[in-house]
Amino acid sequence: MVKRRVVVTGIGLVSPVGTGVDRSWEALCAGRGGIGPITRYDASGQAVRIAAEVKDFNSDDHFEPKQARHLELFVQYAVVAAREALADSGFQITPENAARVGSIIGCGMGGLPVIEKYVQVLHTKGERRITPFFIPMAIPNMGAGQVSIFLGTKGPNLSLTTACAAGTHAVGEAFRAISNGDCDLAFTGGSEGVICPMAFGGFHAMKALSTRNDAPEKASRPFDKDRDGFIIGEGGGIMLLEELEHAKARGAKIYAEMAGYGMSGDAYHIAAPPEDGAGAVLCMENALKDAGMSPGDIDYINAHGTSTPLNDEIETRAIKKVFGEHAARLAVSSTKSMTGHLLGGAGGIEAVITALAVKHQLAPPTINLEEPGPDCDLDYVPGQARAMAIRAAMSNSFGFGGTNAVMIMKSYEP
C-alpha cells in the first residue's frame, strides 16, 4: 500500500516558558528558562521545592468556572493547546468532516493531584464526599477525550500512556493513522500537570530529581558534569497533522512534513536504560528506516536530555552508535534545560519545538551547559540558539519501563 504523506499544519503550546506558541518559541530561542520555586502549594517541607510551572495560565480565560472545576490541569492544557493548533491551521471542523478528524494524545500520569486530594477526602470525610467527577478527572485518557468533545472530532480517539515517551508515541500513532487512511487529520501531542506533593515525593524517593533548590534557574543542566536530576514540568504541546493532499486542497500553511517513527523496548530495567543504550539505538534506527533516511540526512536532534546522570551519558552513547562519524556534525539540544521535564507531555511540546526548528531553520539551545560531562562530547548547541540548515530533525523520548519512541520531521518540499 502506498502510504499517504503527512504534514504539520497547526501548532499550539502551553509551556513553562509561556502560554501560546509565539511566547514560548521566543523564550526558547532567547534561552530563557521557566524553572523556579513551587508556588502551586506550600512546598517548604519538601526535599525538592522547585518546578517548571506554567505561570501565565488562567483557567478563567479559557473555560467557564464550572467547567474548569471539573477539568484537571493536564486536560485544560491539552484543550487550550489544541484550540490554538486549530485556530493556527485555519481548518474548520464540521459535521461533514468530523469523522475524519482524530484526537490522539499522550499523558503519563493523568490526574495525580485529584487522586491525592480525594484520598485525603476519603480518609477524613468519608466515601460520600467523593465527587462523581473524580474518576473522569483522574483517568489519563481525558486529554484526548476532552479535546475530542470540545472540538467536535469523531475520528480515532486514543490516549497513549507510556510514561515519558507518551507524547512522542501519540504523534507517531497519529502519523500512522493518517498515513494509513484511518483519518485525514489528527490533533496529537501530549500534556501533563502533576505538580503536587505525591509526584515530588515519589520521584525524589527514586533519586531522580535535582535538589538545586537555591538556584532553580540553573537546576536543569542536561549533559553538564554537575547535573543531578530532572525538574518536573507541566503543560501541553499539540499539533494538527494532516494528509498532504487535503492540506494542499485548502491552501494550508505547512510547518514540516512527518517523515519517520520508531519504537522499541529495552527489556532491561523499570527505570534505568542499559549501559550500551541498545533500546535507544534500535528506536532511532527504526525511525530512520521508516523515513527511508540514512543517518547523514539528519541535521538536528531534540534530545530526551533529562539532566539525569544516566540518561544524558547513555543517550549520547546511543546517538554516536547510530550516527557514527556524522554524530560530530549533528546539532543536539535539550529544551528540557528551559522547560523542565513534562513527563508524558514532553514528547508533545518537543514535537512542536522540532516542527518550529525545521520551519525556522533554527536549533534552540541547551542552557546551563557550563562544562560537559566526561562522556557527553557532542555539539549540544550550548547557550544560544543557532541558525542552521535543518533538512530533517529527530526528537527522542525514552520512558520508564524501557519504552522508547523517536519521530523524524523534514522540511516540506512539494
From TrEMBL:
The biological process GO terms on file are: fatty acid biosynthetic process
Q: In which pathway does it act?
A: Lipid metabolism; fatty acid biosynthesis
Concerning InterPro entries, the annotation shows:
3-oxoacyl-ACP_synth-2, Beta-ketoacyl_synthase, Ketoacyl_synth_AS, Ketoacyl_synth_C, Ketoacyl_synth_N, PKS_Beta-ketoAc_synthase_dom, Thiolase-like
Enzyme class of the recorded protein, top EC level: transferase
Q: Which UniProt keywords apply?
A: Acyltransferase, Fatty acid biosynthesis, Fatty acid metabolism, Lipid biosynthesis, Lipid metabolism, Transferase
Classification via Pfam families? ketoacyl-synt, Ketoacyl-synt_C
Q: Which NCBIfam families match?
A: fabF (TIGR03150), PRK06333.1 (NF004970), PRK07314.1 (NF005589)
What protein is this chain from?
Answer: 3-oxoacyl-[acyl-carrier-protein] synthase 2
Organism source for this protein? Desulfurivibrio alkaliphilus (strain DSM 19089 / UNIQEM U267 / AHT2)
